[in-house]
Amino acid sequence: MKLLVTGGAGFIGGNFVHYMLKQHPGLRLVNLDLLTYAGNLETVGSAESNADYSFVRGDIADRDFIFSLFEREQFDWVVNFAAETHVDRSIVDPGAFVRTNVVGTQVLLDAAKTFGVKRFHQVSTDEVYGDLPLDRPDLFFTEKTPLSASSPYSASKAGADLLVLSYFRTFRLPVTISRCSNNYGPYQFPEKLIPLILSRALADQEVPVYGTGENVRDWLHVEDHCRGIDRILHNGREGEVYNIGGHNEKTNLDVVKTVLAALGKPETLIRFVSDRPGHDRRYAIDPAKIGRELDWRPEICFEDGIARTVQWYLENRGWWEKILSGEYRNYFDTMYGEKLG
Ligand code: NAD
Ligand code: TYD
Predict the structure, then answer these.
(1) E strand or H helix at 123, and its extent?
(2) I want to staple 90 with a disulfide (CB 3.0 to 4.6 A). Which of 30, 126, 153, 250 is the partner?
């Protein structure tokens, strides 16, 4: 079997590369990534010694490149992680999100159709469902919840999902989609909440909390997400969407306080800053379908997962300090300069 992983130099894709090589010896895996600001070859450095692994640099929206790659490699499976992923960046530059997330996915779908890929799996997000009110803890996102994206990021992911499902209905391309809640774990780029707090608190810098910090996210360790995708790839039904989440809702303020406590840093580092425009209030996944059909359940509880993640960031300072010293510094200054003073 030959698997194409796109976006495998990013956070979840990189964890998935390691997970699949470990779980499925003999599986040939090609990692295709453009190496944008979010892609980092050091994330998959240890895979390089595996003869079944190879890396290709390229753009999923580059049709000629993608078609020649598919023709040459004859992939059995494709798992598409490649995307622009940060909501705040999508507010500044929506076009980049449409190009990669919508056009890129469509180019991959065309190539998969042309070269007879046996399974195209789209890695999507719970953000395509929009948000839930804070005062209705009885409500959850199911696979039947209507798409109602709030940000250019989630709108571009929703557009991609609709294209994927249309290729199933119109062309019978064997597709599946997973929609997962917020991930945390090793190799997450330090613009996202948890690694941002970690990296800043370790330097005794203020940690920015948007609005009042009451927004709720449903956190899942990245390894549980990878296992869910693996299950869907092997046993999921074609044309189906599977939500992935572990009923682990936390307010942002709770998450920030948990991380600060794990680092032994004071809560006085918390700084409430102006809110994100259109900020989604609450995400909460109902994972009943993947539990029932594929026997998937989260295995890493938040307390253990956060402790492991904190440990990883402490032991791998080189990985994220290098990122912070580069282009990301300019990003941080532009995004937060006025907010943090
Ligand atoms: P990430 O930003 O860490 O990584 C994205 C990767 O895609 C990077 O390596 C980047 O170089 C690559 N990439 C970007 N544009 C590309 C292009 N045009 N061609 C090829 N490669 C390109 O993202 P992540 O957090 O690992 O998310 C991966 C996927 O999972 C995304 O599709 C995202 O929507 C989805 N997802 C993320 C979360 C989360 O909490 N992070 C939750 C649910 C779903
Ligand atoms: P983020 O990690 O960007 O993921 P998403 O927006 O996809 O859920 O943000 C998680 C939550 O944390 C979200 O409600 C926004 C909030 N947040 C802050 O309060 N401060 C920050 O500096 C960042 C990056 C996010």
Answers:
(1) strand 119-125
(2) 153
What's the pLDDT tens digit per position in 209-263? 999 999 999 999 999 999 999 999 999 999 999 999 999 999 999 999 999 999 9
> Looking at the 3D structure of the chain, how many domains does it have?
1
**Domain with 133 in it: what CATH number?**
3.40.50.720
Instruction: Report residues whose beta carbon is within 6 angstroms of any ligand 2 atom.
Output: 87, 182, 192-193, 196, 208-210, 215, 217, 252, 276
Q: Give the domain range for residue 296.
A: 2-340
CB 245 within 8 A of CB 180: yes
Return all residues near 2 (Cβ < 8 A) that are at least 6 apart.
27, 28, 29, 30, 73, 74, 75, 76, 77
H or E stretch covering 193 = helix 193-202
Is the pLDDT assigned to residue 151 strictly greater than 80?
yes
Residue 338 appears among annotated catalytic residues: no
Interval between CA 12 and ligand 1 midpoint (Å) = 7
Question: What pTM was computed for the model?
Answer: 0.97
Active site includes 153?
yes
Note the helical H segments in 25-78.
63-73
Please state whether beta strands 28-33 and 53-57 pair in parallel, antiparallel, or not at all (unpaired). Answer: parallel
| Average pLDDT over every residue of 1-14 | 98
> What pLDDT, on a 0 to 100 scale, did the predictor assign at position 173?
98
Q: Which ligand is nearest to the CA of 134?
A: 2
Tell me which of 90, 151, 220, 252 to substitute to probe ligand 2's pocket, judged by most ligand atoms within 8 Å of the beta carbon. 252
Model confidence at 341: pLDDT above 60:
no
Indicate which atom in ligand 1 lies nearest the CA of residue 60: 19
